[in-house]
Amino acid sequence: xxxxxxxFSLPFPTLLVNGEGKVEKVNQKLEFLLNxxxxxxxxxxxxxxxxxxYKLQKQAERSYTEEIEVVGFPFKEFFVHFSPLFVxxxxxxxxxxxxxxxxxxxxxxxxxxxxxxxxxxRNPLGGIKGAAKLFMELKSYDEELAQVIxxxxxxxxxxxxxxxxxxxxxxPTFKRENIHKLIQKTLDLFKGELLSKNIEVNCxxxxxxPEIPLDPDKIQQALVNLIKNAIEAVERSERRVIxxxxxxxxxxxxxxxxxxxxxxxxxxxxxxxxxxQPFFSTKEEGTGLGTFIVNExxxxxxxxxxxxxxxxxxxxxxxxxxxxxxxxxNPRSR
Length: 334
What we know:
The chain has 13 helices and 12 strands. The protein is of the alpha+beta class. It folds into 2 domains: 3-100, PAS domain (Beta-Lactamase), CATH 3.30.450.20; 105-322, Histidine kinase-like ATPase, C-terminal domain (Heat Shock Protein 90, 2-Layer Sandwich), CATH 3.30.565. The strands form 3 sheets. A 5-stranded antiparallel beta sheet has the order 2-1-5-4-3, sandwiched between helices. Strands 7-9-10-12-11 form a 5-stranded mixed beta sheet. A hairpin with a 5-residue loop joins strand 1 (14-17) and strand 2. Helix 7 packs antiparallel against helix 8 (143-164). The longest helix has 29 residues, at 110-138. The two termini are 20 Å apart.
């Protein structure tokens, strides 16, 4: 296949740069994006074509030199993908694709944003309230409970800082994290409630999982919502069991999974169909935003949310999280 045919068939604005970082070919979508012809663009560097294009130039040079793919590099309103192009085993250059970022639903609907913020502020406040109640029952200082209170107050502060910068539930700030510590930290927030309601929690962790890049605050937001839903699902059941399981996903590859299973009443096919839709809830006083926010957080990490449920048996929610970042600092190798 000729390079022109390849570029034409791709769904996003795309260009091909050579080993020196100069444009050789572009598709029509890229011409429309920049409102320039291929004749004008040919021979130009990415630095010349884009404001802050030096960032793109650096990633393109890295992709060419190290022969790696850089997937999902964030640049303005795009995720940019860089892939070395080989023809008959000879390296010809780098294909650069500009994939539009998905629209942030919280910036489109102010009502959704305000209700989402209200919903998410309640979660750390609930953790603080639970820790404070245990303090009162113990009538003595407990360092672990004090740490829970401090960490949840700090989480509220970070949430409010996000608001001031233009809030987006789905856009993560990555750092490498031990997912099991994060899960245990989340479960500790519900320690008092789990004891008082006589709910059993089983943790089936794969100890070989490495630290992975994620946004710990946002993944904890997601886990808090799932654990909270599981508690509410089992508290009226005869068998009150929540199981949290981790491991390597088989499909897709290079992902881990986090499963939260409960022995609650489960969902009907119609309820399952609407799971994750904003303002849909199976609870009388539910907002329906918790699972919607979970889904947005997981999508923001480049992951997937899957759910299985059976009436009278229970519900299983699976988070699939990539083991490598989508922003270029931990690119996927060829």
